[in-house]
Amino acid sequence: MLPEKPATGSQARKQPRPQRLLGRGPPLVAAEAGETATQGTVAAALAAPPAGTAAVAMGGNEAQDVEEDQAPPERVDQAPPEQQAPQACPSAGVTRGWCLPTATAAAGSRQQQQAQHDATTPGGGDAEEAEEDGDAAKDEQQQQQQQQQQQQQQADDQQKQQQQQQQQQQQQQNLFTLLREAAKADGAADAGLTPQLVAQFVALLARLPRSEQAEKEAQLRALLEDGQLEAVALLMAAAWELRHGAHVPSDAAP
C-alpha cells in the first residue's frame, strides 16, 4: 500500500483538531490554511484573557454556561428590613442588604418591639406614661390627705385637752369660791370650817395627782350642796393630816 499523503488545503480543515490544553471553544487567533493543530493551540493560549473575563473569550453555549455558573444565586424574596428582626453581620465592617452590626441590631430590635407595642396599644407609649403619671399623682394626693388628717387629729386632740383643762380650772375655781363663801357663812366657824382651813386645803389640792383632785372635788361639791359644813371641814382636815401628818395650824393665813 502506498503511504498516505498529508492532507492539504480544505482537507486539512475538515480533519478534527487535537484537544487543546487550555480552556474550551475555538481559538481567538484565526487559523490560516495549512496551520497545524499545535500552532492553533499555542496561539489560543497566548490570546487567552485574564481570569474574570473568561466569559468574554468564550463563545456560543459554553460562554453562556460559564455565565450561569458564575452568576450569583437568585435572592429569595425577603420582607423589608423594618418587618424583620435585624441580624448581626458575619464580620466587622460588612453590610449585606439590611445586615447591621450587633449593637445596632440589638437597638433596632428594641425599637421595633417598642414600635409594635405602641402600635397595638391604644395610645401607645403616651398612654403608659400618662397612666404612670396618674398613679404617681394619686399616691402623692393620698399622702397629702393622710398628713392633713394626722395634723387635724393632733389639732383636735390639743384643743380637747385645752378645753378639759379650762373646764377643770373653772370647776376648781367654782369649788374654791364655794368653800370660801361657806367658810364665811353663819355657823361655819362652829362647824370648824374656817378661811384658814379652806386656804390650806386649796394649796394641798393643787399638789395632789389629778385623779385624787377629781375625787376630793366631787366629795366636797356633794357635801356643800347638802349644806353639811361640818363634814366639809372634817374632809379637808383629814386630807391635810393625811398629807402632812399633823393638824391644820390655827394661825394659817387665809
Description:
The protein has helices at 10-14, 37-46, 54-57, 60-70, 102-120, 124-184, 188-191, 195-207, 210-226, 229-244. It has 254 residues and is an all-alpha fold. Residues 1-38, 51-173 are annotated as: Disordered. Residues 18-38, 51-60, 78-92, 102-121, 142-173 have a biased composition (Low complexity).
Overall pLDDT metric: 67
The overall strand count is 0
Distance between the ends: 184 Å
Q: How does the overall form come out from the CA principal axes?
A: rod-shaped
Work out the helicity level.
Answer: 55-70%
- List the uncertain runs: 27-35, 52-60, 246-254
For the CA atoms, what is the radius of gyration?
Answer: 63 Å
SSE order: HHHHHHHHHH
How large a portion of the residues is in β-strands, by DSSP E? Answer: under 5%
Number of helices: 10
SS-derived structural category? mainly alpha
Largest sheet: none
What's the arrangement of secondary structure elements?
Blueprint: H1 10-14, H2 37-46, H3 54-57, H4 60-70, H5 102-120, H6 124-184, H7 188-191, H8 195-207, H9 210-226, H10 229-244
Helix pairs in contact: 6-8, 6-9, 8-10
Biased composition (Low complexity): 18-38, 51-60, 78-92, 102-121, 142-173
Region (Disordered): 1-38, 51-173
